[in-house]
Amino acid sequence: MIPGRPMPDAAKTPAQRPRAWQRMLSGRRLDLLDPQPADIAIEDIAHGLARVARWNGQTLGDHAFSVAQHALLVADITVALKPGCERSWLLAALLHDAPEYVIGDLISPFKAAVGLDYKAFEKRLLRAIHRAFGLPEDAPEAVTALVKQADRVAAYYEATVLAGFSLDEAARYFGQPNDLPAELVRELRRLLVPQPAAAAQAAFLARFRALAVR
To answer: pTM for this one?
Structure first.
């Protein structure tokens, strides 16, 4: 140990190291640097996502449009884009933003500014969440592409209905959704009504239980 140089974390006792875990309402303690499936509970995810606001809260309505509602929207769009999609991949769609129950919903410009370390952290947590609920750590490329497409469709409609984007602006950033079933477009208007946190939490949990593979 060189005098004046900070002690490396590896040489510190557990009490001396910075806290890198979060206590969940379920009583679990989630290590953010080494997340384990046993420390992940869907009740914690649902509670957190229902209280994390999309668009940094810059949306219309008396309530924030939560990540829990966004996740439900993406799952609905996924099945509309690919009828007959396997239940496990619809579960993956529902959980695509699940890490945000811990890290929050950073808007895309800020994610770009933070860089690859943030993305690596997010991916590590998502893999642990997948393992916790019986999904492969990494979904097949075709499934990942499908969920990403659904995510962009959801972002386009959220942006234009709730977040004050013009149609042209939303199309430039998220792409113009084409060939969507007419019944889905009508349904989106109903789904894009911000709900109280408790209602969004209950809806997310109900959908998870309908899709859970185990």
So the answer is: 0.85
